[in-house]
Amino acid sequence: MANRQSAGYGFRSAGTLGNTPAIQGLSKYFIDAAVDIDLFYGGAVQVTAGYVVTAEDAATAESIGVLYGIFYEDASTLKPTFNNHYNGAITPATAKDGGDIVAFVNDYPWQIYHVAADAAVASTIAGAHAKYLDTFDVNSAGGSTVTGVSNNTLDIGDTHATNNTWRLLRGVEDPENGDLTAAFCNVEVVQNLNQYIDSSGS
User: Fold this and answer.
1) What is the mean pLDDT of residues 142-171?
2) Rounded CA gap, 131 and 187, in Å?
3) C-beta of residue 143 within 8 angstroms of C-beta of residue 107
């Protein structure tokens, strides 16, 4: 049976490993003022040279977590401005926060996320279960500049037992989007290559 959804939506937080409470706390990081990149709500990010950038430019990229919004003082209106995504390049009005844009990131290493798979996990349920705990890459660091939401999907074709960024835990019990034998099913993943706690041992 086909899944109802036909596109990705990035990463949506959904509990934690071990079923401990998920407080959904967001930590404050920075995006370099005027940098010409796009960062979308629900997209995985990393810190490079002190600034948030996309973490989805390689299958083995480390991440600090998932972006959930930004804050800056708008240069035109001079008003405090919140947005769910960064559509570069933005130069804030003042030197507040060092002249940079604030990024709010869920950086809990054991956070579980729901994400849509770009293809059937396998042709059978048993085959899909056999891929649980393998690691995967993510398709596209893009998204919508209208909604601000990432269009990331889990790249089922780019898998490795240990090396890739996201570890597949299980399918999601979703009556409309839970068919592991069809594209765009929802699955649960956790960071495998967290920038602070790298489970690869490297």
Assistant:
1) 94
2) 12
3) no
Sign of the dihedral through C-alpha 181, 184, 186, 190:
positive
Closest C-alpha to 1, from 132, 168, 176? 176
Rounded to whole angstroms, the Cα distance separating 39 from 8 reads 15
Other CB atoms within 10 Å distance of the CB of residue 173: 8
Cα Rg of the chain (Å, integer): 17
Residue range 52-72, pLDDT digits in tens = 999 888 889 999 999 999 999
- Which residue type occupies 51? Y
Rounded to a whole number, what is the distance in angstroms from the first to the last CA of the chain?
41
Q: How many CB atoms lie within 10 A of CB 74?
A: 14
User: The pTM is what?
Assistant: 0.91
Helices (H) and strands (E) in the chain, counts: 1, 14
CA 81 to mean position of chain CA atoms = 23
Q: What is the mean pLDDT of residues 15-28?
A: 85
Give the phi and the psi of residue 98 in degrees, each rounded to 5: 75, 15
Q: CA distances (Å), 95 to each of 71, 73, 91, 177, in order?
A: 13, 9, 10, 46
Torsion, Cα of 26, 27, 31, 36 (10° steps): -30
